[in-house]
Each structure stands twice: as C-alpha cells, then as structure tokens.
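Continuing the batch. This is chain 6 of the set; chains 1 through 5 are on the previous pages. Same settings as before, nothing changed between runs. Recording input and output for traceability.
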Amino acid sequence: MQLYLDCPCTSFPRSFARDYKETYRYPPPSTVYGLLLSLVGEVEMDKHRGVKLAIGIIGDDPPISRILRKQRHHKFSKTHLGTYPTGKFSKPNHHELLTDLQAVVRIDSSEEAGTVKLADRVAIALSTPAQITRFGGLSLGESWAMINGVRAYRETDGPIRWLIKDNRGLISLPIWIDRQTTQGTFQRFSQSEEFCPDCWVTIPKPAAAPDAKKGKRSPRKSQS
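Output for chain 6:
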C-alpha cells in the first residue's frame, strides 16, 4: 500500500527543542505511525507495533519558516490554582514551520502479530470510511497541523525521494518515543531516488515482559 499525504503547514519539533521550537525537515516515522493510528481510529499505541513504514518526499524539500508566537510558561501551584495573569507568565518564542509538504508512505504489515493488520485497516478507512469510528481532525504532527487529504499515490503526483537508512546519513529522525521514559529510538537516513529494502523502518515491537518464574527462589524447607 502506498499513500499520498498533502499537508499545507506543519511542524515536527526536534527532541532537544525547548523554547525555540526547531523542526525536523521530514516527517519522522513515529509521527507517521501516529497519523495512521488516528486515520483508522485506533487509540492503543502498541496495537500495530512491528509494522514497517517507508517514507518519501515529492518535489523539493519543504521550506522552513520561522514565526514569533506567544507561549505560556507556568506550573500548577496551590497559590494560583490554575489561574495565571497572561502578561506575567507569557513570553514571545520562535517556532519553525514547514509548508507545502507532500509525502508518500508505504505500509508493510507482514510482521505484525495481530490478526487485523494496519494496512488492511487503512484500506478499509479509505474505501469505506463509514465502517470506522474515529475522532478529531487528521493531522500530521501537532494537532493543529491538519492535512488536506490522504489517498492512494498516483504516478502523476510526481517522482519520490525516499528516506533510506544510512548510519552515516545527515538526517536523524525518531522512529519511536517511549511515553513513560520519554526516551527515543532514532535512525539516521539519507535520500535515494530508487526504492530499496533499506527504505523500510520497523516501528519497534514492545519489549517482552520478564518471566515471573525465572529467577524465583524456591522456599527453604524447614529444618527440624
């Protein structure tokens, strides 16, 4: 399955970005995975881990714009009880945006463990959207970065530059973020005009739960 995504304005904040919101220039696999879950109405993040994704860009690299916006900085306290004067806890910060992003996503669900694969659910969502239940706007990145649409890729959309795994590449993107530890798994990429097996990125499967019986000591026998 190969999808075409059109996103007029978005941002993929870098992992180290703080006040100054720098953006990745390309959609990270972890973000694309979240979009696909939203598309099919899945709220369980681990549901389709193990799926393989390949991401490509159509046309030139999306330009980066820098805007100045107001951002609030405060922490909840018993003193304020959630009420903060705007002028005291707000300050201007810079934010990077990507515009006119056209991306292509390939999905391979052959290594998923579940019976209903993500690729099948995406196909159902596109062909018969009345069969799925989802909520909110469909966005690529933050919730305000809504897409114009998603459909099957057509040759007339233009040639694709694929992200290809390359440990010496200059493009570093997160492929998974642990929501509990906030630690990320990253992969370096370069670009290729041709699709090849190294374009596939696997969303990591959950770590296996430790065997409760393993390492458990047997109770000592009472000595008479």
